[in-house]
Amino acid sequence: KINAIITGIGGYVPDYVLNNEELSRMVDTNDEWIMTRVGIKERRILTEEGLGTSYMARKAAKQLLRKTGVDPDTIDALIVTTSTADYKFPSTASIVLGKLGLKNAYAFDMWAACCGFLYTLDTAASMIESGRYKKIIVIGADKMSSVVDYKDRSTCALFGDGAAAVLVEGTTEPELGLRDSYFRTDGKGLPFLHLKAGGSVCPPSYFTVDHRLHYLYQEGRTVFRYAVTNMSDDCALIAERNGLNKDNIAFVVPHQANMRIIEAVAKRLDLSMDNVMVNIEHLGNTSAATIPLALWENENRLKKGDNLIFTAFGAGFVHGASYYKW
Ligand code: ACO
């Protein structure tokens, strides 16, 4: 049996740091509110004009190729997961593939909001386990600053930009890699978290621009409630059916939307925060990039055989948890 494992990680975050102090000069907010309610001190923003999500995805993938030393000609597929594609079409993955000069690969995007990395990693793992593909690059990347209204204090503090890439390959070593996933999509999420205009229902027009309909809309309190319940339940379920508990879980790697959601998940699993990977304080919510960026930043804390649980929740609503043995 072939198991799918992550054999390398690359990451990229833009240089520009937008901290709470600067935000409080843009909207009526303050560091104390943001830290106690959300747990974010600063976030990175891609400020250079003309650069989009593919730029960050390419930077992350380049670092991945350099670190692993893998021959780019041996890559079979490249999948980008994002909610902030460079264009409606072509796919962001096709742009990244072109810039990387991959000669023997095909590329496509997957959309699953903040669950994008989990769903895509699982898809890539199934492709590897099938034996038809040997090396797949999965990239979680989002330029959330491109859809955030910096006049809306209820959302502008929450998000940041970033990208991370992983190489997924096969091994015949037993028990390693992506072991199990529990995913669900609850199609009732649309009213609570969406971007109103720019799609086929409400194409862009002077009206949509005048009414600021091209920005992320969120009913924060409802989303918060759903996120806590679903991420906690999904982790508990994946732990139970794989015999995982506080004594044998090395790390939970949760989607980073709110520190209070992350703490609730840790509490449900009876884990200390030392066993939770957190990057929300300095990166904010980078959507599809939160989980791979957390792995990238904490790579040196991971040991072979460590039991990890990944969990996420996002627009749709989408949610789930995966069990990964490092
Ligand atoms: N600074 C100061 N005050 C603020 C700010 C701010 N930045 N934002 C909101 N407030 C005010 C509100 O106006 C409100 O004031 P009012 O009572 O006078 O009306 C008050 O604070 C409380 O607002 P709530 O929205 O109820 O605050 P809450 O404690 O729920 O926190 C938050 C809001 C942080 C958005 C929280 O609800 C949350 O984290 N939700 C989940 C986010 C999430 O998980 N998103 C999913 C992933 S995103 C994706 O998929 C793309």
Automatic annotation (TrEMBL):
Domain Beta-ketoacyl-[acyl-carrier-protein] synthase III C-terminal positions: 240-326
- The chain positions of domain Beta-ketoacyl-[acyl-carrier-protein] synthase III N-terminal read 108-187
Specify one Pfam family: ACP_syn_III
Catalytic activity entry: malonyl-[ACP] + acetyl-CoA + H(+) = 3-oxobutanoyl-[ACP] + CO2 + CoA
Protein keywords: Acyltransferase, Cytoplasm, Fatty acid biosynthesis, Fatty acid metabolism, Lipid biosynthesis, Lipid metabolism, Multifunctional enzyme, Transferase
State which pathway it belongs to.
Lipid metabolism; fatty acid biosynthesis
Q: Give me the ranges of the annotated region ACP-binding.
A: 256-260
Question: Which InterPro entries does this UniProt record tie to the protein?
Answer: ACP_syn_III_C, ACP_syn_III_N, FabH, Thiolase-like
User: EC number(s) on record?
Assistant: 2.3.1.180
Any idea where this protein resides? Answer: Cytoplasm
Family assignment?
Answer: Belongs to the thiolase-like superfamily. FabH family.
About its domains, the entry says: The last Arg residue of the ACP-binding site is essential for the weak association between ACP/AcpP and FabH.
User: What job does this protein perform?
Assistant: Catalyzes the condensation reaction of fatty acid synthesis by the addition to an acyl acceptor of two carbons from malonyl-ACP. Catalyzes the first condensation reaction which initiates fatty acid synthesis and may therefore play a role in governing the total rate of fatty acid production. Possesses both acetoacetyl-ACP synthase and acetyl transacylase activities. Its substrate specificity determines the biosynthesis of branched-chain and/or straight-chain of fatty acids.
Query: How is the quaternary structure described?
Result: Homodimer.
Q: What is this protein called?
A: Beta-ketoacyl-[acyl-carrier-protein] synthase III
Name of the encoding gene: fabH
